[in-house]
Specification:
32% helix; 371 residues; alpha/beta; TIM Barrel
Amino acid sequence: MHRRRTLAVVLMIAGSAVIFFAILRALTPQPVANFSEPLVPTAAPRAISASRPTAIAQTARYQDTLWRGKARWGIGVAMGPVTRYDLAAFAFGWYLDWNAHRAPAQIAHAEFAQMVRVRGNALTPAREMLAEIARANPGSLWLIGNEPDVKWQDNVEPAMYARLYNAAYLAIKSADPRARVAIGGVTQPSPLRLRYLDRVLAEYQTQFGAPMPIDVWNVHNFILREERNSWGVEIPPGFADAHGVLYEVEDSANLDAFRAQIIAFRKWMAERGFQNRELIVSEYGIPMPEDYGFPPARVLNFLTGTFDFFFTATDPALGYPDDNFKLVQRWCWYSLDDTMYPTGRLFDPQTGKISDTGMGLQNFIARWMTK
């Protein structure tokens, strides 16, 4: 009997503990769900082409051009450190690593672009650290968010993005009025993603009673499928659409589609009064595996074709007036050394060896710079 009574007491205590921890878990904020990243198909398909928060007025445009005598082209550093590679022959004018740093690594003649992440409906780094970094790096370029339109990247609905952008803009500009703040790059300027940006602009106006202060416009220019529960870049958060543009795998290296998206984005900017803003393309490339039909020669042909386009594309009705109406002021290839999407990388991060694509780009830049 004593043993049974003891067992009953133990079971009662254990049951109470289970209930207690279940309640505690329910009251504890849980981390944001991590979505898998089905950017690439699993098999190669048939190739077919409350109260109103404080706002801040936009400061006068920082008159120094983004390039300031540096090269317009840059690189995304996925693994790093960037200093382990010999990059002199690439003559990069800027680089980024999808983070913000108080003391970013220095490479010759290249500017570091700071990035604030907005995943989980919060700023990373937080506002106090943003201000500290801004004071330590006056005049820096700041990108607010990385692909907020993609659920496995920053994954933020337009209303929340507008609120977070305002908080970041306030923190950065209060610490460094000369900072240049850019909107986060959506994955591609498709009609669906342009609707996402329209909502962001409208939400900012509604929440803060003023137009969204954007010093520099920023976009990514991938060519990926927009379809719910499919490969590619899915549907932006807050949208009920079943699909957008149904690109195929083969389109990832489609230069005509690449050029058309940039022209469409500049047209969208001009229609909304942003023609007099610089435009940067802070990420683009070919994420598809080599055995899906993207050997180094094809990747290099696409890469050099995009450089030719960026160097020469102008339009008096759409381009930036202070840059002889060029459509794009700066661009950044993906990537220097990624392991998840290695097709377009310039170096193997395991060996440090330059890739065929890297050698081809070096030679292209050398020829271009001697013209």
